[in-house]
Structure formats: structure tokens, C-alpha cells
# Entry
Amino acid sequence: MKIETNADNLQPFSPHLDLNDKAILVTGGTGSFGRSFIKAVLKRYKIRRCIVFSRDELKQYEMSQEFPAGPGLPIRYFIGDVRDVERLELAMRDVDYVVHAAALKHVQTAEYNPFECVKTNIHGAENVVMAAIRTGVKKVIALSTDKACNPINLYGATKLAADKIFVAGNNLSGAEGPIFSVVRYGNVIGSRGSVVPLFKKLIADGVQELPITDLRMTRFWITLGHGVAFVLSCFDRMEGGEIFVPKIPSMKITDLANCMAPGLAHREVGIRPGEKLHEVMISEDDARTTIEFNDRYAILAPFMNVSNSSFEKFNGQLVSAGFRYASDTNTNCFSPDDFRQIVMGE
# Structure
């Protein structure tokens, strides 16, 4: 299995995309994905302007130490919240592409702060769509999550609603307006708040056992580099209304723990509120409108005509009836060697 580990090496994923002299805005641009995305774009293309849009002044200051703004440098920092549509409209003026990565992302946080999660993830998605339409943005991609498929927690439910908002945005933008698509993937290895940094800290602290919510649990995994490259490639392929899903490996949480700390005991602590045993990225109901490609799937919107789309040129075909893309039945498994190479640097 080939695993993309370098966010700067984008050739296999976006050979035809040209962002030279384009302006791009990333909501939630100081997050793990945003920083990697902006680093890769600045290195690969001669961007006219790259806008980091986020609400955290400290994170923007810290990011500006690595990517300083100034005369002749294309990066700009905008303090703003996706809950504020007027601020979004100001930031999106003369912008060509938007990546919407801002969200409240933690399951437990959403369960105990539902109003705040709805305001950011649902109303924020609506504001991004309306601001993009009003300012004439060309293309918008929103980042989603496997938890949006058949959600059982509030976070997943709000991201499903956001997905629907972005897909429906294509019906509102008109013939000359922006097109909207969604990218859905699983756990990002090493992102802030994920299990890998948690396990690393516990191991460094000398714990005698690692906490596992359920010994049967599986998850999809993707590297930041692969995620960045995949989003860029979707800008190249999108027609508007697709939910793009990459073909990525799965792994049991116990296998992950064994790779990080061989021989260390596991302590089962129980599934937390809103947590699934296994994740699903494409359900049986989605299968009716899902196209499979060599490296990804695309769930088409109801208004998209498969026969009239350009997917045929990418050798896409409908998946079989009853198809389900889930972490426990995924045939693409993350081997210990693959994991150690990426996470442990071995």
C-alpha cells in the first residue's frame, strides 16, 4: 500500500490544478489541517493571496512566526468567526477558492455544548455558503467527517446538516455563481486532540496501561499530507454537489496501541457518550448514487446526472447495490509497519 506522507508532494493527487495567481481562503486556517494546507500551497504555487480566517488571536500570532505576512508576501490573517456572515463577506472579497475547515470537532464537547456546536457547524456553514455566493467565489470545499454518515452524536448530526447545506448551495448560486462540494474522511493521524498524541503523552509519562474505550473499536486513518493533497485534487475534479471520500486504511485501536507501545497493557474504559464502535463513510442508502474511482468514491447529489457528468473520463463506475464503506469491513488495513513508518518515524 502506498501512503502519502508529504503534504508538499502533491503531484499524484492534483496534476492539473493551477492555483498560480489565485486567491484562496481557509476558515479555521490555524488548525492542524489549515496549517498543513497553507504550507503546501505556498510552497507549490505562486498564490496571489492566501487568507487565514480564524477566531483565535494567539494561534494566528504563533502561525505568523512561521508564515509571516508583509510586503510581497501573499499570506494574510483575518480575525473572524464563521458565525459572522458580514465578516466572512469582507474576507472573501476577490477570493477564488475557499476551504471551509472551521468547526467544533470534538464529540464530547458537542454533547455538552449543543447550542454552541449548532451555531458554529450549522449556522457557520450557511454563512460560508451565503458569503461565497454574494462575493462571487468560484469554488468551495467543506471538510466533513465520517461521523456525519448515519450520525449518533450531535457533532456528526451538525456535520451532516452542514454537508446538506453545502450540497444545496449549488441550487442557490446560479449558473455563474460558485460551486460547492464536500470532502469526508476519518481520523487524521497526529491532529490536535486525537488519540495518537494522547497515547504518546501517556507513554512518555510512564503509564503502566493505555486506556481503550472498547477493545473491538476500529477507525479510518489518514495523514495530514494525504488529506491536503486529496482536497486539492477535489478542487480539480469537482462539478458541484459531490461528497468525495478517499480510499484510506482502517485499523483497530488495540493494534494502534500495540504499535506505539508493544507489550504495554490495555485498560478498557467503555465507550463514551456519542461514540461509535465502528465508523461508516458511505452507507447502503448512499450507495445508490456513489461512484467508485481508483483512489476515491464520490457520493453524487440527487440533482446530478451520472450519465451527463464528466466522471466517465476518470473511469468511474457505480458501486454495487447495498455497498457499505465501514472501518470494520474495510479491506484496506493499516499494517503495523505502515503505522510505525508514519507515526513513529521508523
About this structure: Residues 93 and 135 are 6 Å apart (CA to CA). Residues 1-13 have pLDDT under 50 and may be disordered.
